[in-house]
Structure formats: C-alpha cells, structure tokens
Amino acid sequence: MSSDCGHTVRLSIFGESHGPGVGVVIQGLPPGEKIDLEDLYAFLARRRPGQNRLTTTRKESDKPVFLSGVTESGGAVITCGTPLCVFIENQDARSGDYAGFTEVPRPGHADYTAAVRYRGFADMRGSGHFSGRLTAPVCVAGGIAKQILSRKGIQVGAHLYSVGPVQDAPFPLMPTAELLNAVAAKSLPVLNDSAGEEMEREILAASDAGDSVGGIVECTAIGLPPGLGSPMFDGVENRLSTALFGIPAVRGVEFGAGFAAAAMRGSQNNDPFVFQNDRVETTANNHGGILGGITTGMPLLLRAAIKPTPSIAQAQQSVNLTDGHSETLHIAGRHDPCVALRAVPVVEAMTAVVLLDMMMEETDIGDQ
Amino acid sequence: MSSDCGHTVRLSIFGESHGPGVGVVIQGLPPGEKIDLEDLYAFLARRRPGQNRLTTTRKESDKPVFLSGVTESGGAVITCGTPLCVFIENQDARSGDYAGFTEVPRPGHADYTAAVRYRGFADMRGSGHFSGRLTAPVCVAGGIAKQILSRKGIQVGAHLYSVGPVQDAPFPLMPTAELLNAVAAKSLPVLNDSAGEEMEREILAASDAGDSVGGIVECTAIGLPPGLGSPMFDGVENRLSTALFGIPAVRGVEFGAGFAAAAMRGSQNNDPFVFQNDRVETTANNHGGILGGITTGMPLLLRAAIKPTPSIAQAQQSVNLTDGHSETLHIAGRHDPCVALRAVPVVEAMTAVVLLDMMMEETDIGDQ
Amino acid sequence: MSSDCGHTVRLSIFGESHGPGVGVVIQGLPPGEKIDLEDLYAFLARRRPGQNRLTTTRKESDKPVFLSGVTESGGAVITCGTPLCVFIENQDARSGDYAGFTEVPRPGHADYTAAVRYRGFADMRGSGHFSGRLTAPVCVAGGIAKQILSRKGIQVGAHLYSVGPVQDAPFPLMPTAELLNAVAAKSLPVLNDSAGEEMEREILAASDAGDSVGGIVECTAIGLPPGLGSPMFDGVENRLSTALFGIPAVRGVEFGAGFAAAAMRGSQNNDPFVFQNDRVETTANNHGGILGGITTGMPLLLRAAIKPTPSIAQAQQSVNLTDGHSETLHIAGRHDPCVALRAVPVVEAMTAVVLLDMMMEETDIGDQ
Amino acid sequence: MSSDCGHTVRLSIFGESHGPGVGVVIQGLPPGEKIDLEDLYAFLARRRPGQNRLTTTRKESDKPVFLSGVTESGGAVITCGTPLCVFIENQDARSGDYAGFTEVPRPGHADYTAAVRYRGFADMRGSGHFSGRLTAPVCVAGGIAKQILSRKGIQVGAHLYSVGPVQDAPFPLMPTAELLNAVAAKSLPVLNDSAGEEMEREILAASDAGDSVGGIVECTAIGLPPGLGSPMFDGVENRLSTALFGIPAVRGVEFGAGFAAAAMRGSQNNDPFVFQNDRVETTANNHGGILGGITTGMPLLLRAAIKPTPSIAQAQQSVNLTDGHSETLHIAGRHDPCVALRAVPVVEAMTAVVLLDMMMEETDIGDQ
C-alpha cells in the first residue's frame, strides 16, 4: 500500500516536500560496513537542487542525520546491522506557491489522483509525498548501497542518455570503473561532451519557452557475478523495474536492447557466447546482462524514460474539482526544466539498492 | 526467490516444459465468483500453440484441471475463496530435441544462467521452468481474473502493436468493450487489418529465413475507478511492471507515452483535465491512466516489448561449458517465429491478475 | 490472505478434504538436494490416519505425486531448484457424513466462521480447506526440509509431551540424534513409555466416552548454528509461531520455559553461560535456544498446545443459521480422539520448513 | 530480516536504547483519521518508565515527534494516508552502565547472540536495538491504531493476569468498554485489586532480593466483526503471534483456553453456539473469539507470557567471549523488577496494530 520495498535490504520511505523533512528506514543492511561520509555527501550533491541554472533554484543542504543503525568510531561511521534511519530536514520550503492545487489539479501531477486516493487529506504542498524530494532518501540508501557493493567489486554508474531529441553515445560493451567515475564527476553526466552541450541548450530552450523537456537515463552495473536472480517474478528485471517505477516521472524501463529488440530479428538480437577473460562472455550485450531473469556476468544495462517536468510556466487547462468548471492554470514556484538530469544519480541509487538486496540473498545453502 | 507474485491475489506458478505439466495456485480469490469454462477455454485458445503457420507446431490441448478451490453446481464452476489450484498436463513434449543445450548454451536463452544459478540441476529440457509454456497457467489465472473484473465493469484487452518494423494503429483515446472484443476474436489481434497482413508477411519472411522477429504488445484496461494505487513502490506501474517482466522475452515496459515522453516537451506531454461524462477526464492519454502511481479513471495504457524468439534455425556461435571451446550451434525443435503474437493474451492475463489484486485492496476502512 | 508462508523457502498450500486432493507448491528450495523417497514415505506414514485404534479410521495411502521441480536419476529424486509441486489425491472421502453442517455449525469447528468469511461458497465437506488433511502437504514439505537440514547437521524431532492430564518426560538438556530417531520410530512417540501407555488409556477412555482429548507436542532442533534470526519481528519465535499456528487445533506456542517462565524469578530463569565442548553453551535451557530472537546454538525447544478434536460423538448444542433456532447436533463420521498424536510429525515438519527457510538466509554478504 | 511487520498497515521500527532515539514508520494508515494527542500521550504514559517504585528509575519524557504523514488543523492532528514517521528522542541514557557486556554476555539477554549475529558491530549499550525501549514506538503505533479501531466500535484492553505465582481474575465472558477503561486507568492494571496488592508485594520482594519476576498479560478485543482472518497462515493467531513475539521477553502466546485446552476433553473445550443479542454467540469462550483462524465475533482473548527481567542485581555466571574463561557478572544499571507490568500496554498496542491491519483488508470485492 505504500512506500516500502525490498526483500532482505528493505526501504521504508517517509516525508513530504513541505513537512518537517524526508527520510528512510533501511532494514537488513549487513553489519560492519563503513559509510564514507564524504563519499556519501558527494553522491547526494549530484542530486541536490540549486546548483546551476539547469535545475530548480530551491536550495537544500540535504544533510542526512543518522537516527539509528550506526556507530561512530574514529571519525568513521559503521553500520550496526540493525535498522538504519536517516532523516533530512526540509529547509527551503515555500508552501504559499502551492495553494489552490487541491482545487484545480495540475496536469501531469498527482494532485487529482491523490485527492481521490487520500480523500483530500494528503499534504500536497510541493506535491507532498509525491514530490521528487522523496528521491533524497532514496539517494542516501543508494549511496550506502553503492559503497557496500564497491567492496564486492560491483560498480553502478549512469549517464544522461538523451534529453528531448538529443542523444548521448550509449555505454560501450564493457564500461570500466574509470569511465563510470569520470561520467559521475561531470556536472552534465554524459559520455559525449558535445552531446552534453547540445542537451544543455535544449534544456535552456525549454526553460526559456516556459516549458520543460524529458530525457532517458541509462544505467549499468559492472562486476556482478553470473547466477544472480530467478525466473518469472523474482528476476533482475522484476525487482529493478518495480523499484525504478518508484522514482517519480519514470514512464518506461527497458533492459539491454529493450524496445529496440522488438524491431530486430533473432539473429541480430541473440548475443553469441564466447569464452574469454577466463569466463563465459558474449560478444554483444543486447541481453543487458540478464537471461531468464538471471545475471550472465556481462554488464547490467537498463534505461529509464523520464517524462518532462509537469510543472511548466505556460498556461494550462484544468478543472476546478469543487464544481467541474474549466480553469486556466498558471503554475508559479521553482521547478527543474529537465528532471531527467537530476534523475541520473537517483536511477543509480535505486539500482544499487536492488542489487545489494539481491546480493544479500546470493549465497545458496547448497554451496556451503 | 522465484515464481510467485501478488499481494492479496497471489500466484504461485510451477512446472517445466517437458515435465508432467504446468500449473498455478491462486491464493486470495474472492469467493462466489462464477468461472465460465467456455469463456476460459476460449481465452486459453488464444495463447495455445499449433493453431496456424505463424506459431510453433507443438500441439497441446491445454485443458486446465481444477485440483482445488472450486465447487461445481449445475454445470457452473464457482470459486470457494480458498486456494485454487489448476494443473495442465504436458502432452506433446519431445525432449530429444533439447539434448546437449546444458553443455552448449543457446544464445538468448537461459541455458547458461540456469546452469550457474541451479548448478546444473535444473530440468532444462524445452527450457524447463523458463519456457514460454509457463504462460499457460498465467493465462488460466488471467482468464479467471478477467471474468471477475468484467463483473466490476473493468475490461482488459490487448493488440499486437508492432512486429519488427511493422506498426499497427495505436488504441484510440477511449477504447470500447466492443473494440476489445473484436480485436480478441481475430487470429492476428490488430486494430488495422492491413497492418496485420503485413505483420503476417514479416513473420513468415523471418521464418523462411530460419530467423525470428520481435514485436510490441499494447494493452489497455477500461472501467478502472480513479484512486487505485499508491505512490512510490506500490503504484500501478510498479505492480504491473514486476508482473509483466515475469513473461519470458519481455525486455521493456512503458506506460502511456512511455519512452516517447522522454522526447517531448512538458506542454505536449501534460494531459489537460476536463469535466465531461459526469467525471474528470483528460483530453489526451499520455499519462496512460496513471498519475503518481494512482489511476485517474482514464484507460490504463501500457506496452511490453517482446524480443525475437531466441530459438532460430540459423547456425549460431556458442561455447562448450565443459572446456570453453567454441561451437557452432544448430537448434532443431519447434518454435514460434514471433512469440509476440502469442504474448498478446499473456500480457492481458498478467495485467488482469494485477488489476484484480489491486481491486481487492481498493476499499478503505475510512470509507465505511 | 491465505495459505502461503515463508520468506525464501515458501509454501503455497491448496486443497480440500473432500475435493480431488491436497498439495503444496514449494518455492525457493535449493537445487541438487536428493529426496530419499523411502525416508519421505516413512515420515508421511507417521501422520497418516487409519493405522491403529488411536486414530481416525479414514484410510488414505497419501502417496505424494511430484508434478514439478524434481528430476529422477538412477532411482533418486533430485531437486531442480525450481518450484516443486506435490499433489496427494483424496481417496477415502465420505462426504455424506458432512451434509448439514453449513446450516448447523459444529462447535469448535470453522463451519460458522467459514460461512461468514466465504459467504457460503467454501467447500466445507470434511471441513474443506480447514481440515487436518491439509497437514499432509505440510508434512511433504517438512519431510523434504528435514532431509536437507540433516545434511547440514541439523535434526528436528518431537514427542507427545502430554495427553490430557498425562505428562511425558521433557526432552533432556542435550537431546541426541539417536534419541530423536528412537522416539520417531515409536507408534506413540514419547520419551517415557509408561507415560505413553497411560496416554493410550486416556485416549481410549475419551474415545469410549464419545469424547476427545487435547495434548501438547514438544519439539526440538539440534545442531543449529548460533546467530540465526533477528530481533523484533523476524526472530526465530516470530517465524515459527506464525507457521505453527497454521496447524489446525494449535491454541498456544511457547519457547524454552514458556509460560512457566512467567512464574519464575529471574535468577531461576536466566541460563548461565559456560564455555565447553569448544563453544559457548548454557547450563540450562529455559531460553529454548533463542535469545533476542536469535539462536544461541543450544537446542531449539518449543511446545505447541493442541486442543481436543472438536468432532465428538456426544450430543452438542448449536444453532441453525437459517433462522437462529437451537439445535442439538450429532456428529457422525470418523475422527481422531486425540489429534495431538498425529500432530507430532506435523509440528516437526512445520518447524523444519521454517528452519530451512531461515538457514537459506544465513550467509551474510559481509562474511564472504 | 528485521524490524518491520504487517501487510497493509506496516511498521518499520528503528532505534537503539542509547543512540539518538527510537521511532517507527507506519505505512498504509487510512487518511483522515484524527489522532487525539492527549489520548495518545496518556496511552504512552502507561508504558513510560520512572513513574513508581515498581519500574526502572530511568526517566524519559517519551514525547513523540511527528516527522511525516500528518497535518495539523485547529489543534487536531490528522493522518494524511501517506507514511507516518514518529521519532522519540533518548534523553536519560547512561551508557557507562553497560560497558563490558559485549565481552561477558549477560545471561538471558541478547548480548551473546547479537555478538554472533552482527559480528560485534551492533550498538549494544542498554541492549541497543534489543532493548525494551523499542516498545515505545510500538506503543505510538498501537495508540494510533486503538483510536482508529475505537471509531469502528472495536476496543482493545489488557490486564496483568499474573505476576510470579499471583493470579488476577480472568476477563469475564463479555468484557465491556467500561471495564477495559477502568483497568487501563489503574497504576497496576488488574481486575481484582487485592490480587494487585499481592502482585505489588511479589514485585517488591523480588526487587529487594536483587531479583526479578515474570508475569502474564491477558488481552482482549471487543467489537470485532465475525469473518475476519483466513485459514492456515493468515489467520488471527498467525498474525498476532508473530507480532507479539516481537515484544522483548515474550516467551509464549496462547489464544482462548490456550495450553489449558490441551488438558481438556472436547466436550469441555467446545463452546456451544447460541443465537442471542441478534447474532450468533457462544456460551463460553474457550475458542478466544477465533475458529479456523477467523473471528467469530466473540471477544478476542489471548495471553502472552513475559519472562522475568534478565537484568538482576544478584551475581551470575557467564563467560568472557575473548578467551572462554568463566566470569562472575554483576549488573548495575536501572531495571524493572517485573517487565510484565509495563508490557500490558505494549501487548494492547501490538494487538491493536495487527487488528487494524486486518480490518483494512476486511472488505471483499465480492460484497460490493
């Protein structure tokens, strides 16, 4: 019924955009894992708003406060293994901007559906619990998961694959850790910087037109062992897709060749097996590192489609829910012209949480 | 860890392609629901192989046997409310066709990943538990769910949206029950019959070339109430995507405008609200009937990308897992040149099961 | 909402007492585990009715048929790792004995509550899905789990701790595998055979009086590693109790000293720690092998209270649900005078399933 | 793997005894429910320590801070329907008292098992996440659940059924709301005040002897509709027992006659049905309001056995985990001589949370 997910590593997310703050309880983390706070803050900074003219001007320090589940020792923060709760205070909330949307719902937003679902009782200031602000605790969980995974030799990285009609280069067949780190360090996380510049122009053009623009995030994970996952409903795709659709504005999720595979012949789409680098690999990665719901050991490859920010400055048509009369809506407030940009670390985070969850279940009783 | 899904209405699927049979236990069905067997058989026939030259020549009567959870009264079968188990015997299995794939895995199949995951113990004849044959029990569950939903005024329907490069027309803004029934009755379930003829040519061309071809299934549900679903991880998209990726060969799932939304401006993608037909509607359906994970009351709209059948007659490159040497693989056996065709009722079935599951949770304590 | 349980190893139980049969789908079993059929049949025989004058005269061969999830090789049955389904046909059902109980509910039975819950649609012949017959598939799952656990050095055993006022000796501080095997081999599984003889007299006396009698089953598991389980809601007690209350007629579950601990002082109840046998042990086992929800490595010790069989030959007062008038009820049919006797292997089975489930989760990512 | 529970109304509990604080995220609450803060504080005060000489002298104001999920309007706090997070700061923690227990585990405590389970990384000051302090957020959730249930005509109440050998009177066949309120208002919540005085003497005698004493809590719920729950693993007993064993120190749970039923004949234990007060009732309540896992509409009746506080002033034997040598342990710190006393509202709270969870699922699609 709500905002929790996971099997072994489980998130329970809470908070509203204009309430006291947002946070997450993470159940099932392994004990004894060091959390490098500088690294975590750096990861959160990639999602944080107010950093450049491509994002909303809302300013939040997004400092995570650990309420449980860790001990400190010599400057290091270490997981206890017990439930870890992190809280992030809301600081720069301007609720006045949102008065009235409960009466006249914004197109593309959850104002109308929340009104029906919660019978008018949800706190929808700043979109409330539906806000992109809820991705801050997702990134806390994901940032911690990424650190734990990296000690297992698994690295998760993403880039902005497209903005509107502008395409970045796709990930290469075998992305390296260096490549993922280099992309993450960019203010516009792309592989091809000239595509990035074009994306920037596209975003600013949309913004100047009082509009917004969509985009696609491509994410990979390298270093996964083969054999992770299960057929039917507990495969890598099932668990990742249900988590990724938890990110506001995601409208589609695909793995490997994805929708493009639907236009292919089998002889094109099937990836030949080879034995190289002391293991079984494939010479292409249309399968995105997953066959039958189970990892092959090739890089995991997925894409998430992010719709254009529904809040735009242009006038829009809506209805007044009190009596059904039509109204022309003008949305003030501060908004990202392209949420796909800030979704890049969120997709990484969500992917890392799911992969850590699956890795916790990896060892089979029969192996021992 | 495997082949069960759902919250209130829960499936536990079992069986292997060349074992005794396949089946499903459905927990949590409402009691007192009539199952119209003729209607159910007709639905299952839409998925059944061996019916025309576009599908595999494997012949299975696919007669579901009810092992529990129903009573019969005057020719009618009625749900008890207790767990319903259905078993479908395998009849036309030719296991000899599959000898050897545990040593030399077929590209695009789960042979390699299953070997790692199950350490060589899975029964992979005919792809075993990974086989498309496991969609037969999914269709039993879905056929029952469709009947229950239809009594609530909800109808689920799908069509073959594309085959390779050939596109059908998309669903209209407001599909009618008549349209959905008419499409379901066709041997090639499309909206535009001339597109259907072209698809047929495309499938036969692939087949003649010893190849296969992918496709996209578009599915809709009409009559859903607004307010169904929840934000973050328990929304309509989360629950549908995790179920739909349980169908073998699905590589992507999108809702409403889906990936196309990523190329749009917000002013294009946002659907204006209007008050008409005594309720709140939208003048377009890029949102696919879902905002914030919650239904708007507009038609649910989703698409699933189906990869080309990995089994093709052409020679393929693989490795022998015993020592890593390269082998050229020739796959015999009977295979669908385009599994997307038979996936149409499966996508309907899976969607219906999830929607029934969600409808069971609809009523809120506060309403009473 | 129903008859499934477990986290990693998950059961989905189905069937009715007088329908085609009963069965279970087991998801998440480890692959490559040999199922010794003779051993399994011998275990099932311990629960099977119709064996002596202490149990119901209903005769069922209870032959389990494997519908999926196993392969046979050289006479041995081996788990695939994929969902294992077992079906047991009903053979000796006499439904005529049960006509009328939907109108006049039997005291102590689920006739009335099932009528309300399933609005009259449940198949309640022979108590339907509420019947003790549903413990047959539980024993199949438990018999398999016991075999897998024994390869890990874990043995589960139980005895009839009491029948009415007659008490057996309790398990010793450190039960041996030999003791557990010896008890299991007895037709009346007790530690003290003279207590067993007295129990037999008590059961026959109840039977002769047209009555029934309750009892307590005590169960232990030896060889468990320390550190299994978690605090609060995922501890050994939580998972075992929720499973054990799934056995019909269980009215209470306690661990270690259980309810007796409530009458103790702390100085009596606390078990002193000692280092012996190369490990940490305790000199008493009031804690039942569990502290804080987590195993200590001492024998797991639990007791389940089984109420007297509600079906008795004596006349009883009930009401006719059609109009509320009082009726005197006479129950025919074949019934166990003391279900606690046949519950002994069922408690073992349920305990084994839960422990296997927990063992599957044992290995922690941090250990590797 | 940890500290979350529930199906529709779900708790995720976090915190350590000597960390920043303790709290809970509650997912799935119905929207629009008023939380009466005075009533909630009064309920929490029943569990709070430091109030009289029968409990620990640790003083905590236990003021719950709402971090999400509510709005305030005219002094009233109203649920939004979105996740509700409550945090309670730790104020009077004296961690010095607990140094050393990671090396020399306290008998009856989780020190040893936590050390194994969390490999030495758990924060075990004041028993950390295993502390009775974690019942404070349980009471917040339960206090809210009790208020919502009471609007449905359901009232949950409990009393101290026994302390050591001293017994209170049992609940009458049909407890009234007045009776439950009157008991809740007492500093020693008993039905028979002279038994209460004897209990007080028993507790003080244990305390004076540097010892502690166990007890039993009996809990009831009146006003439940018949038909709530399901057979096998989703019945009232399954869900309540798994939750109640989440309360530290609970060693046994029984329903209705419970373990006493094991000593009865069926003719004694079966409760005759009658039609009175315009509904089906029973003339006794050995079944505790549950048959076949489903409510009958009679009062729910359960008992939880609480072991004596393991922390006692007397010297105890333990081992030093570093090298296995025996040590005599002296426990300082502040402790309840009888935790059963403060467990009374906790059992009420846990019961209320589970019943609300089940009530949220009550309405069946077929009824509409």
Structure description:
Four copies of one chain form a homotetramer. Chain A has 368 residues and is α+β, with helices and mostly antiparallel strands. Chain A contains eight helices and 19 strands. Chain A has helices spanning 37-47, 111-117, 135-151, 177-184, 193-208, 236-244, 266-269, 339-360; strands spanning 4-5, 10-15, 21-27, 34-35, 64-68, 70-73, 76-79, 84-89, 155-163, 166-167, 215-222, 250-255, 273-276, 279-282, 290-291, 294-295, 300-306, 316-319, 326-329. In chain A, the strands form six sheets. Chain A has a five-stranded antiparallel beta sheet, covered by helices on one side. In chain A, strand 9 (155-163) and strand 10 form a beta hairpin. In chain A, helix 1 (37-47) packs across helix 3 (135-151). The radius of gyration of chain A is 21 Å and the shape is globular. Chain A starts with a strand and ends in an 8-residue tail after the last helix. Mean pLDDT of chain A is 93; it is low at 364-368. The interface between C and D is large, with 111 and 110 residues.
